[in-house]
């Protein structure tokens, strides 16, 4: 690196950074990273004054030049430094306000592309991770996903990436964009998005003619404008998708997903020259879509969420009109983005489900997108285990799916698990867990046996009639299977009531707990409460406390509070 090329700007920039850091900065900047970026602009991009910055220089610096020169530097530090460098160029009147905004926009796109290519997703210093942003629990799942080689094969079949790479290949071969689009079967409507995606994921990159060796071909100085010519060449992802190894293919696909979510709609607004709606962050619905990926979300609901975000800065009386006006001219943004994601292979759009007449088309994540998003959640600190094959799943695994699984997961897993273990074998395994578990574990195991083994579990119930924690449940379930009366006394029914309520405390929302309590103890039924305090159950005090707090019938709640004192005295607490 020739340090004599830009000595004055380097000194000025260093002084500017020093002043910035002394005044409670919004984000930290490493002066060495900033001056290195400035020097690399001069040495590798031919930009010796920031007023000479051309379109593409920021992208080339961030994605190619800097990583090659300083591969160990933190990309967050590089982005922060380049961001401040552009502010420096504006504040020192090297660029005007419009050019400053254009370059910041290019930096945003380059940043999205940069972080989308990293094996481990990175977050800017002032951004929350996904776990914090969505207030997620420490644990989700477990979930079942295809093996990596299956996911990679799905990624290789992406129609959108197929067209994007074909477009890049045609452009690299020297075809103009319109001819290349015809060759790649890219429509005029889709061309801007596909062309930008080809560049963002790294199928194609553009070098200045002077950097590509054209000056050595005998075509020197043909025209004064030749200096601005750019030459397309194969980017780093050109050989990685679809022909790379599984990890490379999945990385390129994940990069495409991240960039579509981040810049697809903002780029539409830029091309339309319409800043009324702010599409930044409108893909916030994507994580909730994972939490319900077996069931999906109605496209209309996704559109409503996006509209709320995009119009957040508008007066309430203008927001709806602005959203409708954009949708009338450009299409509903949710439908447009979901169409692109479906073309990538990230979502499935179902308009033939049972409730289609009332809720319309439903969007669901594909396993490929679910796997990609799971990786980011794990990086943010969410434990999201993967399930083994059904025949290798223990009963505890199935109980975990019921207790912690995503919406619709247990409906998919339970039938397959019982088929692999047989209804009777599955019931025996689950009841063995229930025998040694606490009330919530016991409740989940019994629910699974009742709903999925049915009458075929009768022998398993008979086998646990002498197990203290399951004895009363076994009598009740066996009688129900035979259509007989259980002949349980009041004290026994009270124990079952305590056990059933205890099984739903702690892990459920308040309204669910209330519904369970009021189902087991109807309004006006103070008799069971008067009996509950006498039963020998470790959760009696906790259950009576919950009944007193949650039951809407005043008489029942009052009886529970009175019984609580007796139970506490009996327990010596």
Automatic annotation (TrEMBL):
Disordered: annotated span: 206-245
Ranges of Acidic residues composition bias in the record: 206-231
Protein name: Uncharacterized protein
Organism this protein belongs to: Prauserella sediminis
